[in-house]
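Re: [ENG-882] Designed sequences occasionally contain unexpected residues at chain ends

Forwarding the minimal case from QA. Structure tokens:
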């Protein structure tokens, strides 16, 4: 079997399912476990730090680990960096068969920091019986020095090992998510998968086809060249973390207005709204959930103010803003849940004779949209309220990136088209 530590909502597991394999996921968060259950993924709800290793001995082919990143992430206090020497000590001790976790944990500024050492406890016990055959681990970039320590231990045990930073956008993920990766194998030379995409498209050469351009948010979400982007508008809304504040079936999208002929599509990803004052009024009504306001908007043939949609990663002053024809920045939520928003900006091709168009209010990204930008299917069965769903999405490994990392160990050729996005 394949053992998946800190399995989350199923980023690795979904990739394995697409590749025709499966894993057993160990996960503590109840909402991630419920999401996995809805997705039909085999899960043990348990604390990885407490679960014994002996049940897996003699039956584990591969080990996957994505320890919780909150202690290390730029979205948090990053106390993992302060605790890093203690984590390195824990890894060294566990690799030698000494369990000093309790003592070291009490000295940590953030007790979650030591979770990054847990995979070594499993690896040491499994190595005693010549397992696993391969290992793949993922974390935020600041954990790379720790992965290098793991790699040195694994090499001493007979593994080939590689560590480095990979950008998910180089593998078809519509997000420039950089992650520290460890790949190790007893049976093949460990090396990163060949990138399939680049920031700029590359022409075909004598050495084969060039890489495609990074996948944009518009491509992933299905807001293509002939179908103007239509961020979701909710009937009501509240801060992240609470239950949905609107009744079932009341969610609307700006596409409703387009279908009634009051919102004009453009082929260059810029949304057009007839009438300056009507545009601002319609957008404000839409953010209150009054989509009927679009239907009553008068259509003007003389003035067509236009704006383009972009994604703002959070509400901080230096937040990254990316246009729809680019990949998203790294999606993380946590205490910033629901603050990842679609914002509208005037199009660059505004006629000089027209005044600057009224700009709609920001629209919060939905869990469905965020999941797609992580390369989960559009219908992935997220469990929990909005905040719980966003937390799962932000912490998950993108399945498409996971697929690229896992396919060589399974002897399978990955087909990116199998990872469907917008439906």
């Amino acid at each position: 079997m394949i053992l998946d530590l800190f399995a989350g909502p199923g980023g690795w597991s979904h990739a394995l399912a697409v590749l025709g394999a499966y894993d057993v996921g160990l996960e503590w968060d109840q909402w991630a476990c419920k999401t996995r259950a809805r997705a039909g993924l085999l899960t043990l709800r348990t604390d990885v730090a407490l679960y014994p290793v002996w049940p897996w001995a003699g039956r584990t082919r591969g080990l996957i680990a994505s320890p919780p990143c909150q202690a290390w992430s730029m979205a948090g206090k990053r106390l993992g960096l302060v605790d890093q020497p203690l984590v390195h000590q824990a890894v060294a001790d566990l690799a030698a068969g000494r369990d000093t976790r309790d003592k070291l944990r009490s000295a940590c500024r953030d007790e979650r920091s030591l979770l990054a050492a847990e995979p070594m406890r499993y690896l040491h016990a499994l190595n005693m019986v010549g397992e696993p055959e391969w290992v793949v681990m993922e974390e935020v970039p600041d954990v790379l020095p720790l992965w290098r320590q793991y790699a040195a231990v694994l090499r001493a045990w007979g593994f080939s090992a590689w560590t480095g930073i990979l950008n998910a956008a180089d593998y078809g993920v519509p997000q420039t998510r950089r992650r520290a990766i460890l790949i190790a194998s007893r049976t093949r030379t460990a090396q990163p998968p060949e990138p399939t995409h680049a920031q700029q498209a590359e022409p075909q050469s004598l050495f084969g086809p060039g890489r495609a351009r990074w996948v944009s948010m518009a491509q992933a979400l299905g807001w293509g060249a002939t179908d103007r982007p239509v961020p979701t508008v909710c009937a009501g809304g509240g801060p992240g973390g609470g239950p949905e504040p609107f009744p079932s079936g009341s969610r609307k999208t700006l596409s409703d207005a387009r279908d009634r002929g009051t919102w004009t599509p453009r082929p260059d990803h810029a949304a057009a709204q007839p009438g300056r004052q009507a545009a601002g009024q319609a957008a404000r009504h839409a953010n209150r959930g009054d989509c009927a306001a679009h239907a009553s908007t008068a259509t003007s043939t003389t003035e067509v103010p236009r704006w383009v949609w972009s994604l703002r990663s959070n509400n901080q002053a230096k937040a990254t803003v990316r246009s729809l024809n680019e990949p998203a920045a790294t999606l993380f939520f946590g205490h910033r849940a629901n603050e990842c928003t679609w914002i509208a900006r005037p199009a660059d091709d505004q006629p000089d004779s027209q005044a600057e168009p009224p700009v709609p209010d920001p629209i919060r990204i939905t869990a469905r949209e965020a999941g797609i930008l992580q390369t989960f299917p559009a219908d992935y069965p997220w469990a929990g309220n909005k905040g719980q769903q966003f937390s799962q999405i932000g912490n998950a490994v993108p399945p498409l990136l996971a697929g690229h990392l896992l396919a060589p160990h399974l002897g399978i050729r990955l087909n990116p088209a199998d990872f469907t996005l917008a439906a």
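QA comment: On inspection the terminal residues look reasonable. The chain has two domains: 2-202+398-416, 217-391. Proposing we downgrade this to a documentation issue.
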